[in-house]
Amino acid sequence: MLRTLLQTLIRKLKRDSDYTIDPALPTSALLTLIKERGLAYLRGWLRRPFLAECGGAFFVGRRVQLLNTRRLHVGRSVTLEDDVKIDALSRQGVWLGDNVSIGRFTVIECTGVITHLGEGFRIGDNSNLGDYNFVGAAGGVTIGRHVLIGQGVRFHSENHVTIRTDIPIKEQGVSHRGIVVEDDVWLGSGVIVLDGVRVGTGAVVAAGSVVTRDVPPYAVVAGVPAQIIRYRKEPPKEV
Description:
seven-stranded parallel sheet, alpha/beta
């Protein structure tokens, strides 16, 4: 009975009629999960009045830091795990789509220095950021829908200017082009994505890769710097 009630509740929250709890999950673990999710829901409910908007259930873990929350837009059934930090100070703010999850110890930082307001961050429905991710969104980072992102992934949407040698690099400023990750992408653990990169729909980036240039749709890339090793399906023919 407990499993049935919980499963029904989760299906309503997620609006997913096919969601099923694994029969092998012990009842004791299920009760612990209910307690932890209940506390996370309460913490989220207390944060809701301070957000720009919140579309539904909002689950917030322990020791979560949310700064400049009037620029933080939260969808339905969003989860922030323990020790997440989000600073939404930016031109566009931070937008978290429906059913988004942000892993433990992940940092989303939209502005590096207050002399140059950053662009912001957006992540689409049913996507996730893994544990220990870092999103530097000064130049703008946009992640599509149904995107899987592993642990320790980093996004750096700005570069230091290094043209001159007569003055320190620190004094030459930075450039911003932004990062875009399209729908249905998988970024493996430890991936680094640098400024100006677009990762195409359906692409896979192998663990530990450093992405320095665009990844075509449905390509599988690996290495430092990342190179195409195959395609998940045939690339479109050039006309």
